[in-house]
Amino acid sequence: MAWWEYVERVAKGDTQTAIAARIGLSQGGISGWRTKAPKPETVAAFARGYHRPVLEAFVAAGFLTADEAGITEAPATLTNLSSAELLDELGRRLGVH
After folding, report:
1. What gap in Å lies between CA 43 and CA 91, rounded to an integer?
2. What angle in degrees, to the nearest 10, is found between the helix axes of 16-23 and 40-49?
3. pLDDT truncated to tens, each residue of the chain (97 aa)?
4. Contact yes or no for 97/22 (Cβ under 8 A)
5. Do 62 and 3 form a contact (C-beta atoms < 8 A)?
6. Residue from 80, 78, 79 nearest 93 by CA
7. Buried-state track 36-51, b at ≥16 Cβ within 10 A, e below 16
8. Considering the entire predicted model, what is its pTM?
9. Contact 70, 55 (CB under 8 A)
């Protein structure tokens, strides 16, 4: 999966401005992710901002392979998400975040 596809999947419809505000970056920095690889520290900030594992994001950004990161599969259903991830998504949908 390409980095920007990962961002879109994880951010679930958030605008670039909303993503930037959530992780403490500029909107221009986020828009650059469509065409160039992000820096490791911004990948980590994105993962933490969306309560995702940093290693998962590093794989999406191409810094590591899934084997190197020890990732065998990503959560595919809501039953595989943690309570924090479910609450975060609910808050995002309700506009609480």
Report:
1. 22
2. 90
3. 589 999 999 999 899 999 999 999 999 889 999 888 899 999 999 999 999 999 999 999 999 988 888 876 555 566 667 788 788 877 777 877 5
4. yes
5. yes
6. 78
7. eebeeebbbbbbebbe
8. 0.71
9. yes
Q: How far is CA 83 from CA 22, 24, 87, 93, in A?
A: 20, 24, 6, 15
Outline where the chain has alpha helix (H).
3-11, 16-23, 27-31, 40-49, 54-61, 66-69, 83-94
pLDDT of residue 60: 93
Q: How many CA atoms lie within 13 A of 33 on its CB side?
A: 25
